[in-house]
Amino acid sequence: MRYSLLMLLCISFNLSLVAQAFRQEPASDFKLPTQNGDSISLSQFRGKVVLLDFWASWCGPCRIANKHLVKIYPNYKNKNIVFLSISLDEKQADWLSAVKKDKLNWTQLIDTKAWNSPVAAAWDVNSIPTTIKLKNHLVQKTALLNQFSFRSTPQVFVGLNKNLTIRLGGTVSSMYSTQAKVESFQLYAKYRFLSKDAIHRHFRMAGYLEAARTNAPFHYDEINLGGDRSGLEAGLILTQLWNKFALSGTLSQTQVFHYYRWDKVRHGVLHPFTSAQFNLSAGYLVFPKTYNSYKQTNLNFYLELLTQKALDRSLYYVDLAPAVQLIFASKTKLNVGYRFQLDGDMKRMMQRSWLLSLETSFLGAFKRKN
């Protein structure tokens, strides 16, 4: 018996542009007194990795975390890594007593303004202990924050049959550095298990699973497998088409896998690691008025509502993303969109971004015959 299996190959390239990579600027520099009576500034450590730790003598979890820092400090002090602890104590005597008792042998700083500290405010410290790992580009304010950051996402979609689609992709980004670097890899599978098609209308349901691995640092609350987090996401997609109008809803849950998740002393209680998302997208075919040929150019307008709610912390965001789509000869798509936050309290890398994507499809790219 002789048969052919037609497969769809789709190559996509997405580019996200961000005018400012960080929601709040870190301190350009600061100068604080040390335990020895002199003062030092953060800018003295340009070119080095800096572990910046905010704590206080009265903070029980901080004192427990100090034991961990004391244990790991000997392994890093000769590796061009600088430990800086900043106390938010109001009384120097309490601070110095705790430094001595906890045997903190690296540079200790204090800001007696406590929760009114401009340094803590600049780094968005709203609870302690808080530890931030800084590299050179974060010490020098203008090196990263004044650049036009981007994230590119090359992807390959393979339709194994009419119901099953596999996507392989990754990201190259300058979001966390002054130069573009390979950032993450993703594997995505979608299976359509329900399809009710009629003339000029259809209803479809599909489930998907996505896995991602990233090298990006763990700085923010937002959970995003498109470059910022490693983890798994599972979701359900419902799509309804009525003539020229399409409506799609996606409900999903994401689990982040990072060693911070199991660090209950410090990071495990500060960051969200599981979230639920609900997205609603509406699209309308503006052109052509009458569809005569698959070679006609299509113009679509889209509006998408994107939401995320952390399930292990009381954090959320609500975004809106209008977009324009052009489809050429029914196989090449050009999308231009803008995304901005409507509401939310998550600490995010970006609240506004532009998206530019181009994808093209090759029907029957692979054939198998027996």
Tell me what you see in this structure.
Strand 12 and strand 13 form a beta hairpin. The strands form three sheets. A twelve-stranded antiparallel β-barrel has the order 1-8-9-10-11-12-13-14-15-16-17-18. A four-stranded mixed beta sheet has the order 6-5-4-7. The N terminus is likely disordered. By secondary structure, the chain is mainly beta. It is built from five helices and 18 strands.
Q: Report the radius of gyration as a whole number of Å.
A: 25 Å
Mean pLDDT: 81
Main sheet summary: 12 strands, antiparallel, barrel
Unreliable stretches, pLDDT < 50, 5 or more residues? 1-8, 16-27, 136-146
Q: How much strand content do the residues show?
A: over 45%
Spatial strand sequence of the major β-sheet:
1-8-9-10-11-12-13-14-15-16-17-18
What series of H and E elements makes up the topology?
EEEEHEHEHEHHEEEEEEEEEEE
Structural class, from secondary structure content? mainly beta
Gross morphology is elongated
Span of the ends, CA to CA: 7 Å
Number of E strands: 18
Q: Compute the number of helices.
A: 5
As a percent range, the share of helical residues equals: 10-25%
